[in-house]
Amino acid sequence: MKYQLVLQLPYDGSVANYDRLIELEERAMEKICDKGVVDGHDCGCSEMNIFVHTNEPRAAFELLKGLFEPTEQTQLKVGHRSFEEDTYTPIFPIGLQTFSVA
């Protein structure tokens, strides 16, 4: 796989928020099919992330986008980077100028 795709939501430190992260990660593992491999998650610094290894970051995101509730989609940020680079390319929401993982 050539790219790391990151799906990022705000994290408030609550158990319920963490449980939702785990649920999303498990559902992503089921949904990703041949577009990639879910490589885990992390949370802290007011954000929670799901990491996906893929050769097609935009196609993988389109497969996974439906996992998020409409209210989550308004807070969702998504970016990807080549494993050879440190800088992420933002892909969602449209118009997002920068993307980073703390």
Describe this structure in words.
By secondary structure, the protein is of the alpha+beta class. The chain has a single domain, classed as Ribosomal protein S10 (Alpha-Beta Plaits, 2-Layer Sandwich). The chain is built from 3 helices and 5 strands; from the N terminus they run E-H-E-E-H-H-E-E. The protein has a 5-stranded antiparallel β-sheet, covered by helices on one side. Strand 4 and strand 5 form a beta hairpin. The radius of gyration is 12 Å and the shape is globular. The two termini are 23 Å apart. The mean pLDDT is 96.
Provide the descriptors you would attach to this structure in a database record:
alpha+beta; Alpha-Beta Plaits; five-stranded antiparallel beta sheet; globular
Fold blueprint:
Elements: E1 3-10, H1 15-31, E2 37-44, E3 47-54, H2 57-64, H3 70-73, E4 77-82, E5 89-92
Could you give a quick summary of the protein structure above?
By secondary structure, this protein is an alpha+beta fold.
Q: Report the structural category.
A: alpha+beta
Provide the residue-averaged pLDDT: 96
Number of domains: 1
The stretches of 5 or more residues where confidence is low (pLDDT under 50) are none
CATH topology category name: Alpha-Beta Plaits
Largest sheet: 5 strands, antiparallel
Q: What is the CATH superfamily label?
A: Ribosomal protein S10
How big a fraction of the residues is strand?
25-35%
CATH architecture: 2-Layer Sandwich
Task: Write down the CATH class.
Answer: Alpha Beta
Extended strand count: 5
Q: How are strands sequenced across the largest beta sheet?
A: 2-3-1-4-5
Radius of gyration: 12 Å
Give the CA-based shape: globular
Distance, first to last CA:
23 Å
| Tally of helical segments | 3
Secondary-structure element pattern, one letter each = EHEEHHEE
Task: Report the helical percentage.
Answer: 25-40%
